[in-house]
Design brief:
By secondary structure, this protein is mainly alpha-helical. The protein has helices at residues 4-15, 26-34, 42-51, 58-67, 74-83, and strands at residues 20-22, 38-40.
């Protein structure tokens, strides 16, 4: 079932079709894609922040996000960290 936050995010995206919506929930992402919305997730935002020089380390940020309770799979974490040109998750 789609949560209230995901529902509102998709609704706002539909009201503003040129926007980029941030969704991590798989069901929410599928619905947003089906509606033709551009999407990214939390790690996409983190990667962009690293690329523009706002974050010194994605690996550290991934560790911090996990400590805060965000579930990030090992393979996804490794892929994003590698894409940023960093070493393995500490």
């Amino acid at each position: 079932m789609l949560g209230a936050g995901e529902t509102e995010t998709i609704a706002l995206g539909l009201e503003n079709p040129a926007s980029l919506v941030i969704l991590d929930d798989q069901l929410g992402r599928r619905i947003a894609r089906a509606a033709g919305l551009r999407i990214t997730g939390t790690l996409g935002v983190v990667l962009k922040a690293k690329r523009v020089g706002l974050l010194p380390s994605i690996a550290t940020t991934v560790t911090d996000l996990r400590a805060a309770g965000l579930w990030i799979g090992e393979e996804l974490a490794a892929n994003v960290i590698a894409e940023a040109g960093e070493g393995p998750v500490p």
